[in-house]
Here is the input.
Amino acid sequence: MNLRPRLIAALAIFVGMALVPPVAAALGDPFLTVIASRMLVFAIAALSLDLILGYGAMVSFGHAAYVGVGAYAVAIGARFGVTDLLAQMALGALMSAAFALVTGAISLRTRGVYFIMITLAFAQMAFFFFVSQSSLGGDDGVALTARSTLLSTDVLESDIAFFYTILAVLVLCYGGLYRLTNARFGRVLTGTRENPLRMQAIGYRPFPYQLTAYVIAACIASVAGVLLANQTEYVSPAYMAWSRSGELIVMLVLGGIGTLTGAMAGALITVGLEHTFAAWSEHWRLGFGLLLVLVVLFSPDGITGLLKRLGVGPRHD
Amino acid sequence: MTEPLLQVRALRKSFGALAVTDDVSLSVTEGELHAIIGPNGAGKTTLISQLSGQLAPDSGTILYDGAPITRLDMAARVRRGLARSFQITALLPGMSVLENVSLAVQARSGSSYRFWRPVADDAALSQEAMQALDEVGLADRAHRPARALSHGEQRQLELAVALATKPRLLLLDEPLAGTGGQEAEVLISLMRRLKDRLTIVLIEHDMGAVFALADRVSVLVYGQIAASGTPGDIRADPKVRAAYLGEEEEGTPDA
Here is the structure.
């Protein structure tokens, strides 16, 4: 399997996104950078979901819960004087890992549609837990007084510095996941997706590998959550609503599952279209739904599959 | 006589009211090729599935190398050297031929909790995998996706994957299923080479292959062992002829 074209496509995405702030400055539209920041945050979240959904065949319908936990790590951290971005990421990852370890261990006892439902149920539990925390604003959520600090500086208050920070995190996450999916661990995970019975017959027990992947994905999603909270300067239970989890799946389907690059492309396009369409009409979801139907009907492998068929993208043989 | 490598004692398995494995006892000596034959629905695959750990028996004991393995799962049995192939080809279709085999090598050599180093650069893994592919004659197909292989080649790959687990005892569930002519010849000569260094339990419908390869044959009928012996004994056994070898052959002794 030739993975190079995918890597090149990913690099193209990174370079293209890196050009957004100067282009926004040239156009005199700084809001572009803000939207692009949001696109990158969701690209990180979609990447993490692709690890478990695309490579591990674990269709989690509760992945937004971990994004939400990351966001709350910012609010909770700030309350206790932990304002550093990296510290908050560590806190969010720790909280997410704990939650993922317990709920993943239970969810992975099930398969197929039951896995979808049980991950949804756990995410809803997290949602209602934070709704009930009146000290954190309950249903309404809580506004942040400032963005996180980075190594004791307030450099992130600049939208442009913040944008490049998110981009750096995205590149790191992509690089790490690219290595992981091509390493021993990733191959076991992919093998389990292809045929769990075969994997047992050559001496693997899929469960610990799947659980490890589930926890890693949760940690990365919470990093996205920490950035999302900073991007909106607001934290609310809405981040972990089930519809958010659905949107993450939509991003993957749109971009192509199990390619990493597709997940990023899907997230960028989804968030980008959300802003474009929303400016035209409040019924933008109708148009977006139509687009999704077309993609699923005509290119089940998403954008990646479409490129492949046009001879631009990765080939399998 | 030395202790048998595999000993099955009073194994029973029912699906509802149907006893699919009905008090089966069996022993396989180290080094022999033990064929299990029987008509369709006799419970051959169910028996193999219990030996490999895919299915748990209702009662009975399986001893491997002197120790009970009845409660062990498939992965644990593979690690002890008990590998199986599947009747219905069970490969990793989207992965390459080499990847299919090297995953089996990886399972027994070093931790799979390695997240950084590309597995494709792991020369030791690929080398061992290539050896197994060489052995079954698929070396030139190493980089094809498994799903692109012909049916016969997929059967060869099944064997390569099982071999890559470095088994002591190989359970082969109809390795010739769906193959014919040239394809079957390749697999039969491969099994002939393997039986020199491995203990093999073979389930097979192709009687020509069974009688050419087997040291011992057990006949399974309605979940019970109807007869067990050398290929010569089995051919001569009138009960077996009636139950399995085909009534239409009656009166045409061809031993």
Remarks:
- Chain B touches chain A through 41 residues (CB under 8 Å).
- Confidence is low (pLDDT under 50) at residues 247-255 of chain B.
- The domain at 1-81+168-255 of chain B is CATH 3.40.50.300 (Rossmann fold).
- Chain B has nine helices and ten strands.
